[in-house]
Fold each of these.
Amino acid sequence: MIGFQLSEFLQYGVIGVGNGALYAMVGLGLVVIYRSTGLLNFSQGEIAMFSTFVVWQLHDLGFPLPLALIAGMVAGALFGAVVFRVAVQPVGDPHTKPLAVVIVTIGLFLGVNAGAQLIWGTGDRNMPKLFGGGAVQVGDLSIAWQKIGAVAVLAVEVIVLYVVFRRTKLGLAMRAVASNPESSALSGVPVSRILLVGWGLAAALGAVAGTFAAPDRGLNSSLMLLILVYSFAAITLGGFDSLVGAVVGGLVVGVVTEVLPRYVSFLSKMPLAPAFVLILLVLLVKPEGLFGSKQVSRV
Amino acid sequence: MTTTDVPVSTSVAGDRRAMLMRLAPWAVIIAALFVLPQVLDDFWVSRVTGWIPLAVAALGLNLLTGYNGQISAGHGALFGLGAYAAALTINAREGNFLLGILVAAVVCFFAGIIIGLPALRIKGLYLALVTLSVATLFPDLLKQFESITGGSQGLRITSSQEYRGELQEFLVEWKAPSWSGLTDTQWKFYVLLVVAIVCFLMVRNLVNSRMGRAIVAVRDNEVAAEVNGVAVARVKVITFGLSSALAGVGGALFALKELQLSPNSFVLTISLYFLVAVVIGGPATVLGPAVGAVVYGFFNDVINQEVLPERFKPATPLILGVALILLMLVAPGGIMGLVRQFGAWLSRRRTPPPITRKASS
């Protein structure tokens, strides 16, 4: 490779890891929903975008950003739960009626997107950076605090999710519902309420991702559009039902889609292409991804 | 073995009447469409012309998603491919519109076959995911292959004409032939309409054929279809091809209507609006996509442009999104499903109970 410089390569890698952390955050939300309801939520990004606007609005009203973020997560969680109860749950099982479920999430996608435009207009809003605009210098590398913060927050999210799923009664109930809703209902698990919690949790994760994404990309109604596709690539690679997979997948997708287009001129204008190829290849060759559990279907 | 009551037609005249009843809605719709440009002024004729490409593309998507049960959230990409294929053909062949449409259909048919092959292994939600990412990728592809597509600058359908002694490229214009006595806008409407009607009739014949029954059988139960001798894989791949060809024809009509293309016309939302048109109109009905396209066009061109004040313009997708969810919950058959139910209700009230015989099935 002509003109290859290690420091430059590493710098792109750092940017990629920063982006990858966002994809992983959204991916975690997608995995939580997939595990509990078996559904690929195409409206996940838009719900996250909406919650991010709530964060921005609260900050604009004078709340400090961390407080606004927590309030936005709560608002997002409530919004996600309501959306699930009103629109998604009544449609039925995603595996027997995929078209109906896809249509409903696409209806949500269009509706939430338009709703945000109605309330906040079509222009860009300025979201301040949660961790400030500074950067750490490591040799030639410059690593923004915001990126370090994103990775740290991602780590916290994974630990919290792990503890919730493995060490609490709620998590046990969630795993039970994911593995067999009928038996869990018969054992006294309030299935419907547990699913609601899952959707709320996913939406709250989305609010965090949106708040990290907004300062660099500009906060508008199409904030999460591309991020959602990258996140889907991430969980496809990692396995649709694996939290670890979402994180590994997110970071890999982040780095690959940042670094490849810099060196392969064929891809310079379409960083999405590697993500697409990844989705297609994984689904064709190893549909359960790197860490996912194999699905067995009975005829 | 169960016995059911089967209505029996009493005479040949009854058969003929039943057939007339079946064809009547088609005749009325086609007649109304042909009268339309005479009633509307050119401005509105031009807007309604814009609904025709959407109807044809939705027709293609309906064949795949409604009849065959394969979900595509990426038909906007095939629509775009058809549009660019048509535009490039017309530019290369000095304004041969018909050839443009045919090339778009053929190119998209093969593109559809290529997408249809991996779709044999990727099903349901996952196919929606793959096609959705194709739709998101498509505008980037157009920008990447700038030398062919003109990138963000866009692509114009032009023909070279002599101007002050030099050959220059001019945007192609629609010219109504003088014998027709029509305005150029009316002529354009009729040309697009005729192509669309041909497409709808072909799909009507297809779904009523042996192949059409195979397409539906595969959707309802793949294993049962296979056992009954349907070549499932072949049917699915060919359906994908035909569906894509129709989306391509829709794209070609779009190119002919607009005469200039840009990547912004083929973003993800257009794919989603095709799905909206199919679901609102009525999945797995022949006329559903047309009805859906009219509803979408009405929202977009009438309510959004004429009724809503500037501040509330973004409300249109919100209304469509809510309508989509409500329809899925209340009337998954879409508008055509409701019409059919209403028709059944009417005929139950009007006619005396039919003469029946016991039949075993």
Amino acid sequence: MTKLNKHIDELIVRVLSEDCTSEDKRDLNAWLEQSEENSRYYKQMQKVWINSRGLESFRSVDVMSDFNEFKTRVGMQPKVVQLSLKRTIMKIAAVMVPAIMLLAGYSLYQSVPGFGKWQSFATVNDTDEIILIDHSEVTLNTNSSLVYQKDFKGKERRLKLKGEAYFKVAKNPEKPFIVKVGKTEVKVLGTEFNLDENSDGSVYLAVTEGKVLFSANNEKTHVVAGEQAVFKDGTIRKSSLASDNCIAWKTGSIVFENATLSEVLETVLDHFNEVETIVNNSTETNLSMTSRFNNPSLEDVLVELRIHFKKKVEINDNKLIISD
Amino acid sequence: MSEFLNHIYKSTFVILLILLVNTSLNGQNLLYSKVELSSRQGSTQSFLNEIEKQLGVVFSFSNELCFQDYMELETTNGNLRVILDALFVNCPSNYIVEITKSLSSQ
């Protein structure tokens, strides 16, 4: 019966929707004529069919689309917004800039002497001495500065020098003592040496005790006690140390042992700030002098220079002029 | 003294500067100070070194000054001038004594 009803229902729907064949109509009429009950059933179906036409508009409703719109309106669904490149960059920058600033600030804090792990020390008109945490001693010449790690933690003891200083390094074979000056670097384990950086970028190293590794660019050389090395014009030149006069600024002692005129003048230029240049207009001489001084004035040295080299020596506007 | 020294740079003499350092002697009586050497034989340099220690002076000189590796003095006692004359007997040298506080006897 259910199967039959289903068949009749389908037939009725096909006829009511006018989607039927003439055979369907004939079958339906035959079925209606079979009983009054069939006729009543058809009329009910017809009535429902006619009333259902008012709901026709609901058929065109796209439920999913309308539901999505509803969700968007009530904020249930994220808005998909197409961002411009500029806006994207701005968003990235908004995150990155504070992060970079924080990193830069920290880095600056660490690298500025006196705040982070670095400490600085500078001299103006007087020499001064610093004893580092590892008990190394550094004597700074006038107008010089030293930047060094406060605690020497890590695998190395690192320092940066500007000007001139004498280093007496406490021995520690496991922690090299590295001084950077200009374009050069001196690496030691425990020794004594003098470093002097000139305004033209040249660096003079004199070793008074032990051994150091002197490097500049890709060049490296060992310098031992009694030797000196000069970095000038991009290369390192090594020679024997004629005297300890290079550290006269520290010891006060100047010693000339059979020194030639040029050697004496070189020491005068290096030691006395009042002499900025030397003009030697005199003829060559084979004379040499032997003498020693302790904290001499410039005039003390010039007097002997005049006597022993038989030259006229004048100082004029920080210029030392030598003539016959 | 400096004024004087400024004008002697053309001197034909070899000059031995005697610089007063750690001594109570003054320039005038220094050349007459007593010197007593430990030996009659030695080099010029060794005699000068001994005198430096005894009198608290520093000698300053050029390579023109006559130095001998070995010499024998007639006497080991005398004043400084006599001893220096004996050391530089064949050398036309002059002695100039300069008083300065900026020299040491190291």
